[in-house]
Amino acid sequence: MNTNRLVADLFRFESDRAMYLHAHSGSLRGFVSSNGRLLQEALVGDRAIRAHLEIPATLQRHPLPSGVRRALAAHLSLPLPQTVPVSHDAILRASKFVEGLFDLDLSHVQVVTAAPGVMQPDSMGVVYSHGYRSHVVVAPSEHFDPCGMLVYQFAIAAHYVSMRSSPELEAMITDHTAQAMVGFYATVLWSQREPGSAVAYQLRNLARWEVASGLSNSAKMPMGFIVSDLGVSLLKDYGGDLFRSIVTELYEILPDGQGIWFGATGYAGALLGIGLASEEDALRLLMVPSGLGLTLEERLSLVGFADLTGLLRAADQFIGRVLGIPSDLALQPSEAVYGGSA
Questions:
Q1: pLDDT tens across 294-337, in order?
Q2: Mean pLDDT computed over every residue of the chain
Q3: Greatest alpha-carbon span in the chain
């Protein structure tokens, strides 16, 4: 396997994509490139290179407490705050905060603002990798919390920068779980510095993501999941209408189960990032490649978290506190156990 050839082909694809994003105001509709196939073909069946993409089972199986679920359901019924334009000042504030947080230079990261027809104002944005440092953040042109949204995205860009400081091939592969982890880690710390941040509105995604995490184990048989102990528990806590709308959305929003995959990785990464908010050293160690063939679970063990119970408890407490529910309710377990049978 010629690593240099694979990386060069990947970077040509990313360069094509970055130019298209700039030329089309953040939209990839109609984008095609003749580059980028070599790495994808080389990774087919190569578990060692893709090992770090495996989601730790402990995170997948962790059910949010019933009190947290019900608070999320209530919050989802609230209207979003008024949106404001995403300004140059917001971009600078967010980038400087993340640079200081991770001690990384993000001056090469580019931001493209997308019109509502391309990206809705309630979107969290997206980051596209581009070479070693010139990653592209696509953000909605208006948002209810511009700085908070941009902190999340610049943190993901920082993860790309940190990972790609290594020449290893695994460092070039997008890791959605680790990105959500780093994004929520930065978001939590930003919210502690900026009490006016709308972090609760970002946490609303956890409702969709927890359902996606459950579905990820039986994506081709959704009815089996819906009538399982977990499915029944989620339906009870979120309510039938919301639960059904989330399941429908997960299947319709992206083709080939991608909505479920992104939701499952977002759920695991969010729990991990929130739980690690007071563990700066561990987080930094998880932002760099740690050797071919190691899973995220193995990497967590190496930095002192073979048992994730404490992190998950801290995550539940933080989420409950942000949503304004008493700590005892935030830790009250749900009735279902992940993996329950139909």
A1: 889 999 999 999 999 999 999 999 999 999 887 776 677 776 55
A2: 89
A3: 56
- The token duo for 186 is 């930065």
Domain count, the chain: 1
Could you tell me if 336 and 232 are in contact, meaning their C-beta atoms sit under 8 angstroms apart? yes
DSSP letter assigned to residue 218: S
Is 279 domain-assigned?
yes
Q: Are 131 and 83 in contact (CB under 8 A)?
A: no
75-81 LR contacts (CB < 8 Å, sep 24+): 75/200, 75/201, 75/203, 75/204, 75/323, 76/204, 76/207, 76/242, 80/121, 80/122, 80/144, 80/201, 81/144, 81/145, 81/198, 81/201
Running DSSP on this structure, what letter comes out for residue 139? Answer: E
Distance CA 42, CA 182 (A): 28
Domain of residue 241, residue span: 56-81+198-342
Reading the block at residue 73, the tokens are 């359901």
Query: Which tens digit of pLDDT belongs to each residue from 191-237?
Result: 999 987 889 999 999 999 999 998 887 756 777 888 888 889 999 99
Whole-angstrom distance, CA of residue 284 vs CA of residue 303: 10
**Would residue 100 count as lying in a domain?**
no
Residue 134 lies in a domain: no
Domain for residue 46, yes or no? no
Structural tokens at position 276: 């690690």
DSSP characters for 222-273? HHHHHTSHHHHHHHHHH-HHHHHHHHHHHHHSSGGGHHHHHHHHHHHHHHHH
